[in-house]
Structure prediction request, 246 residues.
Amino acid sequence: MPQLNLATVLDQLTGHIVYAFAYNGSINDRGSYSYIYERMKQYGFPMDQIMLISDRGYPSNAMLNKLINDDMAFLTGCPIAVGSNEEKWIFAQGRELERRTQAWDRVHRVYSHTFTESWQKSNKTTVKVYSHLFYDPERAQAVRSNLNSLVVQVFDELSHGRKVDQRLFQEARPYLNEVVDPKGSQHQTPKKVWVIDQTAVNRTADRAGWLNIKSNVVEDPSVAIDLYRLRGLIEQGFDQLKNQLP
Prediction:
């Protein structure tokens, strides 16, 4: 059966569908973002009066540049890329954030830090983009606990030569290395053993619980995460539309 995609754009406050269309083919979220945006422009939506809110599956630097050049307001979750300014800040100063009482958001139960980026438009002018970093200590603890349990469980199974569930193995694989057994005999075919890559484990543990939201219009981090979390209501409605209707 050919894949059919349903794209819906909903009002953030009411949940009402304001635009929807179906299209064929297997297109991921990032690929569909610009397509949806262009179709809305063609159908006369006042894009300069709308703020697009999306999760981490949608944005790319190219797409955000396009929105900025078109004077389009956006607020989007962004992956924290390896080596990015956000990751560097987390590793260098992230642990200090919990000591800043003014950084604690009691409503959303997260710590926040905001810095600004200068993005250049095609006409050489620059605009501000607010990069909000949020740290959720409860989520961080849960992620670290689950990660340690996963890695130790899979490592133990592999070490004893037992069969490992493929899904669990794929999740744990980034944290495991297969190396030549240093205790093996030099006169025999080298035997390989599994070891835990503690550097990789620590890197993921240090990044646990962090969320990055970028916006060219929302300067207040509390407002940013409030708007972002409203997506949950929209996603629940979409899940019903997609999975529960006959």
The domain at 4-136+209-244 is CATH 3.90.350.10 (Transposase Inhibitor Protein From Tn5; Chain A, domain 1). The mean pLDDT is 86. Residues 69 and 123 are 8 Å apart (CA to CA).
